[in-house]
Model the fold of this input.
Amino acid sequence: MGLISTNLLFHLFGITITIAGAIYLYLKHVTYHYWRSKGIAQSEPVVPFGSVWPVLTAEKSVGQLMRDLYLEFKRNRIFGIYSFHKPTLVVCDPEIIRFIMTKEFTAFQDRGLYHNEKIDPISGHLFLLGGPKWKRLRVKFTPTFTTGKMKQMFGILKEIAEKLSKCIAKEANQNGVVEIKDIMARFSTDVIASVAFGIDCNSLENPDAEFREWGRKLLTPKPVRNTLMSLCPSIMTMLHVKTIDTGPSNFIINTFKDTVNYRMANNVVRNDFLDLVIQLMTKGCVNSDDGNEVQRDPIGASETITMLEGAAQVFIFWLGGFETSSSAATHCLYEMAMNQDIQEKLAKEINTVLEKFGGLTYDTIMKMPYLDKVVSETLRKYPSFPILNRECNREVELPETGFIVPTGTPIIVPVLGIHWDPEIYPDPDRFDPERFSEENMAKRHRYSYLPFGEGPRNCIGMRFGLLQTKIGIITLLSKFRFKPTPDTKVPLPLDTGNFLLMSLGGVTLRLEERH
Done:
């Protein structure tokens, strides 16, 4: 019996080696020859991981990998990589990016990212969804971000910004040094918790507040899952993996349900995002900015959204709002500390405008053109979404390439790479707000600056995110001066385990009060 078992093991081992060898040879000489067979330049893949091995090992983030590949292959309008076994097209040329994102949008409407509403209902949000459901929800939610709606929410943001000022002053009085990344994350958390959930979580006073704790857990580095979700969703589909862990998912859904039920039972009305979601749940549309008429969308005007659909949209508003806005503000204040002349010029503009118009209002912020340049340059150097994903849903020939994109082909736009291209942005590591003067912007292709995407699928919350970021910066620079400390890292190291572009560890700065 022992001899038979040994022979069987050797036999199975031989079969395994043969199968593994066959797979290796097929990947190396057939699968990984796909782009060359089409006459398209390609990165050299590693069997069986394709081009993504540096991301799986957390050597590089997805954004850093695509930046480096873009800089290597940018002489080509397009080039190919392999996400494990899947051929993926990377687009370098801004005119082809415009073709994909706007001109032929209907052929590239979906992101092609993994989501599974059956096992993970909170993944059914606008960022991940595709097809008719995405279109229906996008149409319904677009009126929630008008200028009128932003003005209605402004009071909430201003109130929390005043708490931010007190928090920073307290930190400054203790030792004059602050960990600005954590403080701005707490500020953004408080804003989003209030606007999206109607909850005063007050993490500025209590750093261990429940909302802040769940936010930290959501952004724990998960390089393998993030890579599969963004670059090889078919494997996630096969494995039925959740995009969001059960703990934070249940917290968001239960908090949303409890707040909605309380408001509806007690007729609570508050000028915030949650009010607008409740309107979509109860009557399928939102009130116009004057509060009287109703904005009817042409697609299913009276069709309401479900509780879980509402929870999913509030979730992505929360996640996108607190992390991207806090990162933008953090990176901006870091650059101000490293560039004192720019900081002083911006602070002068802020205080001049505030004094002229009698304080901080929505309209006041619109009268700060240098602030807009500074924030734009921050998002150029540190785009929160370092790549943009699309998927082809019907065969289309890309202009001036002769290449017909097959249905189902994943497409990546390497935003970080384009933003760091020295031929588009000379000396890209230098922080220079004048890149966004009207004259310099006119010299560049519009699709060479993509912090919020472009076309019909651009970031729906862009205006709110910018408003939140600017309020935080105005509040702090009007009263404080930021400087580097001996512990301030130059350059800032990036977190290689996250899909979003985030600095690794804390960002320590020294504060001085302005007089």
Residues 38-513 form a domain with the Cytochrome p450 fold (CATH 1.10.630.10). The radius of gyration is 24 Å. DSSP finds 20 helices and eleven strands in the chain. The longest strand covers residues 78-83.
